[in-house]
Amino acid sequence: MENTEKIQKVKTALLSMQRHSWEQGVSAHAFLDLGEKDMVIAFARSAVMRQEEDGRAAVMGSDRAVTDTCAPGEAIAEAWRLTGDPVFEDTLNRLLDWALCRAPRTSCGVVCHLIGTKQVWADSCYMLPTFLAAAGHAQEAVEQMEGYHRLLCDPQTGLFHHIWDAEAGRFVRADFWGGGNGWAAASMARLLHRIPAQEEKLHCRLLAMELPLLKALRGMVREDGLSHDILDRADSFEEVNFSQMYAYALFTGMADGWLAPEYLPLAEKMRAAANEKVDAYGFVQQVCGAPDFCRPGISPEGQAFYLLMETAAERFHRQRLASSVSE
Prior knowledge:
Blueprint: H1 4-15, H2 21-34, H3 37-49, H4 73-83, H5 86-102, E1 119-121, H6 124-127, H7 129-134, H8 138-152, E2 163-165, E3 170-173, H9 178-194, H10 200-218, E4 227-228, E5 238-239, H11 241-256, H12 264-275, E6 287-288, E7 296-297, H13 300-326
Antiparallel strand pairs: 1-2, 2-3, 4-5, 6-7
Helix pairs in contact: 1-13, 2-3, 2-13, 3-4, 4-5, 8-10, 9-10, 9-11, 11-12, 11-13
């Protein structure tokens, strides 16, 4: 794999960081894609230890999160498959009961982001559907993604607004946040990769949302391969993780054959820009930073998406090389 030493440093830095439920989930996804099964099992086991009575996993403190706590579910499902340990099966079933039956929803059936509100966040595009698909509920995964798309995607620009309040009937944060658009693009790419190819109708429904989004996002990338935190606002800070998330989606789509290779120069430009931001300790600098995500800094999701991007890029280039050799 390219950048082997840098990847190891980024992994070490990620493991050193404190993580909330969604951060635990996306971090586990990175190790899952890297093929590090023991690490996936360890991430899942930690999420099990923090499962609430209502079924939510990896909960930290007085957490009101609804969908964030589903993000570790893909690792939990994989841990059960790998080990056969009933503790993972029980945790998975309880988390599914939360996601499918108990989680608060809008009147149109879209799962909300926080307990006690009817808010729908772009973040949920990634946290919930990827879990549902991994747990064998691909139809519900796509239906939830369609619900998020219907409520959040702006028909004029093709970009995702951040937060819709279904009770108030308005956006409480209408910004085209780079992170939110990255969550949406990355989620649909991951769903297209995880849902079996024979599910043609589900793939078509996802592509009907993903391809226009990827096209719309193309114009948000600066010449240097980075973006602004609010994609259409040059007065917002320069941000790195959107480029990693977008590049992950592009490399995944090209590797899986549903995205034209014309996106390769853009994907490589963003990948190179992100690699320039990895410091000597393996921290990806200048991402939308934890814990409040209102300024540039570092974050577990920034670390994880560097690894997800690099793994997807490696898979694409490996397939491309194999194809050229066979010709």
